[in-house]
Each structure stands twice: as structure tokens, then as C-alpha cells.
Design goal:
Layout: H1 10-21, H2 29-54, H3 61-73, E1 76-77, H4 78-85, H5 89-101, E2 105-109, E3 117-121, H6 123-143, H7 149-168
Antiparallel strand pairs: 1-3, 2-3
Helix pairs in contact: 2-6, 3-4, 3-6, 4-5
Keywords: DNA-binding, Transcription, Transcription regulation
Pfam families: MarR
GO molecular function: DNA binding; DNA-binding transcription factor activity
Length: 170
């Protein structure tokens, strides 16, 4: 079997994987392909956003996500913010230290439980996210421009369905 280049098209990569695992029993290729494509799309979108939108501001995907979540939902305890960002509290601690040192967020003790920390956007953080989000959304639009509006709605609905299933099944 020949080597498949890293920059080969998705169909070639799927075929290479199928060739490699084809001798294994009870492999659901349709499920494997669907999940692998979700993973590859997520990684490709993340890399594109960090390169084309976030890099100029020195933000990572996670730091942008933290700013966005705080912008949409307001002040939040670190444990909830970590959950919304899809990272551990330990990872979030480093992200918040960077954002705080740049003046984008502040961390303060919880009003009634000193063990908890609440994170808030600063005016500078709010200005940054309001400036970056339209650029971010323009890239989102470019990512899915190959799909019709109906296909975009179907994709969003199907991904929500899978997400709901994964989150509810632990």
C-alpha cells in the first residue's frame, strides 16, 4: 500500500484508513468517517481562525472562546467558564493569566464563597471581542460558503443532535 500524503484530499485519507483497518472485524466505517471528518473540520477551522483572525491579537482559540463566552453570558465562575470553553480548569488558569496580564479580563473572589473565582471582561476585553467577532464570523461564513443555506441549517441541526447525544450519554 502506498503512502498517503498529509495534504491528500479527505477521500484519499479515508480510503487509506479503510485499507489499514479493513482486516479488523466489526469496524463501522460510516461512523468512523463521520467522526473523523468532524474532528478534521474542527482542527482545520481552529487553525484557520488562529492564523487569519486571532493571531494578530495574540489570541489562541481558547482565549478567544473565553472572551466570547464572557461577552455573551457575562461574569462567570472559573469552573463554569472552563466547561463552556471545553478545557480543564488547569488549562483555563493559564489562559486567564495571559488574558488578565493583557488587561482583557479580571479575576475576583466570589462574593459569598471565597474558594471560588469569578471572571469578568474588562472594558478593553469587551472592545477586543467586539472588534474581532465580526472578522471571526466572516471566516465562519467563508468556511461554509460551499454549502447552501439549507445545507448549512441541516449541518447545524445534525451536529446539535450528535452533540446532545454525546453530552447526555456522558
Amino acid at each position: 500500500m502506498g503512502t498517503v500524503r498529509r495534504d491528500s484530499n479527505p477521500t484519499e485519507r479515508e480510503q487509506a484508513v479503510a485499507n489499514r483497518v479493513g482486516s479488523l472485524h466489526d469496524i463501522d466505517f460510516a461512523s468512523m468517517s463521520a467522526v473523523q471528518n468532524v474532528y478534521r473540520v474542527a482542527n482545520a477551522v481552529r487553525a484557520r481562525m488562529e492564523r487569519d483572525v486571532l493571531g494578530e491579537s495574540g489570541l489562541s482559540w481558547t482565549s478567544f472562546t473565553a472572551l466570547f463566552v464572557l461577552w455573551v453570558w457575562g461574569p462567570m465562575e472559573t469552573r463554569h467558564l472552563a466547561e463552556e470553553c471545553g478545557v480543564t480548569k488547569g488549562t483555563l488558569t493559564g489562559v486567564l493569566a495571559t488574558l488578565e496580564s493583557r488587561g482583557h479580563v479580571v479575576r475576583t473572589p466570589h462574593e459569598t464563597d471565597g474558594r471560588l473565582v469569578v471572571v469578568r471582561l474588562t472594558p478593553g476585553g469587551r472592545t477586543l471581542i467586539k472588534r474581532l467577532f465580526p472578522q471571526f464570523n466572516a471566516q465562519e461564513t467563508q468556511v461554509v460558503e460551499v454549502l447552501s443555506p439549507a445545507e448549512q441549517a441541516t449541518l447545524a441541526r445534525l451536529l446539535r443532535k450528535v452533540l446532545t447525544h454525546v453530552e447526555s450519554s456522558g
